[in-house]
Amino acid sequence: MKVQAQEEWDLEIQPKNKLFDLQLKEVWHYRDLMWLFVKRDFVAQFKQTILGPLWHVIQPALTTMMFLLVFGKIARIPTDGIAPAAFYMAGLTIWNYFAACLTGTSGTFTANASIFGKVYFPRIVMPLSVVISNMVKFAIQFALLIIVMVYYHFNGYPIQLSANLLFIPFIVLLMAGIGLGLGIIISSVTTKYRDFAVLLSFAVQLLMYATPVIYPLSYLQGKSFRWLVDINPLSPVVESFKYVLFSKGYVDPLHMLYSIIFMLLSVGIGYIIFNRVEKSFMDTV
Amino acid sequence: MGVAIKVENLSKQYRLGKIGTGSIAHDLNKWWHTVRGKENPYLKIGETNDRSTKGNSDYVWSLKDINFEIEQGDAVGIIGRNGAGKSTLLKILSRVTGPSTGSVKVKGRIASLLEVGTGFHPELSGRENIFLNGAILGMRKAEIKKHFDTIVDFAGVERYIDTPVKRYSSGMYVRLAFAVAAHLESEILIVDEVLAVGDAEFQKKCLGKMNDVSKGEGRTVLFVSHNMASIRNLCSSGIILQNGMVRYSGNIENCIEDYTKLDIENGDYNKKHVIIDDSYRRFFASHERNIDFLSVEILNKSLNNALATNEDIILEIKIKSVKDIDGCRIAVGVNNINDTPCGVHFSEQNIEVKANEVQKLKVIFKDHQLAKGKYYFDFSIGKGNQIEGFKDFDIIHKTIFFEIAYSDIESKQMIPIWHSSWGNINFQNIEITQN
Predict the structure, then answer these.
(1) Where are the coiled-coil regions (chain B) (predicted)?
(2) What are the pLDDT digits (tens) for A201-226?
């Protein structure tokens, strides 16, 4: 009787987590913490600024203007008959979300070492909160995009509403998944060897040019380097985002499936590696 | 009552030195062994963790085959010198890092306080930080809401609750942080030396709160401290770690006695002449250290600093200043070896120091009235007083150790027994008349 009672433990600390023990119950217990991190990120970022969250709008607005100038006026890259400002802003909005998720989550272990070194909570809470708080920023930028689209609606580029718009949440989740998956893989790998962190700092920028952000996929028809954009799992996501908004462009379902599989794999592998590393990273970080 | 924590064959290995191209070869080798289903080759080597001697291996065992059990509702002190493995043990128990081998089994929820105010964000208000910090420590929002008023009250920061914590004084900050932690609802609480902060009044409040936690609410508490007095106050049993191994575990009085022996074995105890380095300045954080204590020497001619009750204690202190300062005073504190303070003497403010000159001060304790026991000296040098404001130029802690062992200066008559509950002063100049 007594022996049996002794064997019921609430927690066992072992040298390594089991490979597929994803601790989902624990993550659920800490859901309040996740929301508080989201709130902290959002509130703390713009304390003691006058414009506050308006900065989330100013940044894409200025970038769009610069793109208009460089890629529209100087390089004269076509925009598939979409209002150039709306075209660039749509690409930027979804791309920024990916870039923010990736860079935000890739520093999980190194940036939070001081908290992680003092207290335990499921580490995955941190990157999840990054993805969510970037979703809020995405929503703000998306609102700006809608305003721009409405403006062009009355200035020669009428909006065609379609049922495809319902795919937007799905596209955003796909983007979040890829960003999170790659981010936590990089964060796990960089705890010991920082090389990837250096790579990431410029790789994200380069990757943008291999993604149809500033040009439509149709522009690459018959070009020799088309494969570079095709193997990029982000291409169909960005292209489909534009497609559901403007009903222009080309999305290949097989290409889309490739992105979805890539997302599932990166999240799955990422979570497993992350779970492994969270036990020992404090010794090497 | 059952067992709350069961630690079995727990070991933790660390790799010393830099991480870079050199360590990748070891990593690959380790990986190759795992792939072939063999044991990690580096777990077979490694040395005990003795900081002071240079070892031959890059791997050291910070903890080696630790075994113990802690009963539910116990308050256990974890004692050991720096580098004995206390912090590593706490880190493993609070799941900050994993063990290399072995396991820990736990019944109940663990909350650990390795630091107060983990995750406090300077830009957020006190209110927001209470929720954030509480959630980091594992509380649900509803739990924090329930305790919110008592937390604010305990910290005494009601007025500032909506001000960003970066505007708080350091005392307020610590009080708020501790208040959150003190209201954790967990079955097991792990506390590192966080009580070494805050003013005396608040420290007392914290100690009181910790006491409530272990004695009143039936919680299990693990407490790490260097301060034997607070360990004795709080804990019923103790575990002494030495070089990553359990040296002793059991009743707290025996633990403290054993630990003081450890101090003696390590030779700090009977030094007659101590050269002061920064390890003696653990509690001194000021950046304006204009005067340095250089050395402290006990001039009494006695074996192992064993003195008599009627013997004057004679000390010589050397100090050196970076600039001319007039009107300094020094303070000499005497503490029992279990860290209970016995008293302090403040000198007149008449010490003059000249820049870059070594000065000698002689301190004579006449008629000290200290009871049989072991003690050590603390010193500080500074200026001013509590009313007009004061400034410390240097503070040194645990310098010279000595023992009051004899009742006569010829060291013939040993003092038989002095019970520790009688205190540290054996009053001498008291007149009792019968009429």
Answers:
(1) none
(2) 889 989 999 999 999 988 888 888 88
Say whether A129 sits in a helix, a strand or coil. helix
**Cβ A14–B99 below 8 Å, yes or no?**
yes
Distance CA A36, CA A22 (A): 22
| Interface residue A1 vs chain B (CB under 8 A) | no
Could you read off the pLDDT of B100-143 as tens digits, one per residue? 889 999 988 888 878 777 888 888 899 999 999 999 888 889 98
Q: Which of B263, B295, B325 is the last residue of a domain?
A: B263
CATH number of the domain residue B136 falls in: 3.40.50.300
Task: Report chain B residues whose CB lies below 8 A from the CB of A282.
Answer: 91, 96-97
Residues of chain B with pLDDT below 50 are none
Specify the long-range contacts of residues A215-219, CB closer than 8 Å, at least 24 apart: A215/A71, A215/A77, A215/A78, A215/A79, A216/A78, A216/A79, A216/A80, A216/A82, A216/A87, A216/A242, A216/A248, A216/A249, A217/A249, A217/A250, A218/A80, A218/A249, A218/A250, A219/A77, A219/A78, A219/A80
Tell me whether 0.85 is exceeded by the ipTM: no
> pLDDT value at position B45?
65
B107 chain-A contacts, CB cut-off 8 A: 8-10
Query: What residues of B are in contact with residue A37 (Cβ under 8 Å)?
Result: 132
**How many residues does this entry show for chain B?**
435
Contacts of B137 in chain A (CB under 8 A): 119
A15 CB neighbours in chain B (<8 A) are 98-103
Question: What's the gap in Å between the CA of A21 and the closest CA on chain B?
Answer: 15
Residue B321 sits in the same domain as residue B254: no
pTM: 0.74
A86-90, A236-240, B36-40, B77-81: range with lowest mean pLDDT: B36-40
Helix (H) or strand (E) holding A272: helix A253-284
Residue of B nearest to A17 (CA): B98
Look at chain B and report how many structural domains it folds into. 2
Structural domain including B280 reads 273-422
Closest residue in B to A275 (Cα–Cα): B98
Question: Half-sphere exposure of residue B117, counting CA atoms within 13 Å on the CB side?
Answer: 21
Residue with tokens 């003795």: B50
* Interface touch A119/B114, C-beta < 8 Å: yes
- CB-based contact (8 Å) between A221 and chain B? no
The pLDDT score that the predictor gives to residue A234 is 94
For B37, phi then psi, to 5°, come to 75, 20
Name the percent of chain A lying above pLDDT 90.
48
Same domain membership, residue B342 and residue B230: no
Residue where a domain stops, chosen among B205, B235, B263: B263
CA B1, B6, B8 angle in degrees (round to 5)? Answer: 155
